[in-house]
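Record 1 of the preview.
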Amino acid sequence: MHNLQGISAVVVGGNRGLGLAMVESLVARGARVTVVGRDEQRLHEVASRLGVDVVRGDATDEALARSVIGDVRPTLLLLNAAALPGLAPIHEQTWEGFSRTWNNDVKATFHWLQQALRLPLAKGSRVLLSSSGAAVNGSPLSGGYAGAKRMIWLMAQYASGLSKELDLGITVQVLIPRQMIGETEHGRVAAEAYAKRKGVSVGEFLAGFGAPMSPKQVGEHVATLLTDPKYDGGVAYAVKGDTGIVALDS
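->
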């Protein structure tokens, strides 16, 4: 998959934020993209602007995952479902907020990844899961978010091993942004919470990550990850404004 021209791709959670940046990057390279999301208005806007197909539905719905993967049979599946976690210290969290990322991001990733392996997708297909730098360093104001994102990383490892064991020929990888991205809705809300907690401005807090990284840069990194042969073999790849793409496999 070193040329995305004509490739059939499904992007779950591709109607906003980093998922939308990934869609834009794929479309720019000639991929045929289907975007899955909940927000009908955002989906309509993305379809009108980029000429992609859209499917409205709950990404955590197993039947939706089975239907879309079975109908589209993508060569490329990007899983970027993301719910805003409850943002508070652990003693102020509710269980609903604490577990939100597990019940949305992990559940959605589980169902779509499972269906991709069960069908299975054609040999040579790629599946890219979205995790977070919180999976490495934790995230004390985000409840169960860090553990959930680590679980997504582990699922990529499990699925990659299974693909080899069963000779499925499906490459499963995980993308790990190592900084908050203030240009996205979720990144901005999280940055505001952490900045307030630390008593600094949002700009000062985000500057602590080093060089900023825009959603567009993330989309370009994803395209590079999918098309540059040197990234074919690994499972976990971090992206950061001042380092670019870095392999995290030990």
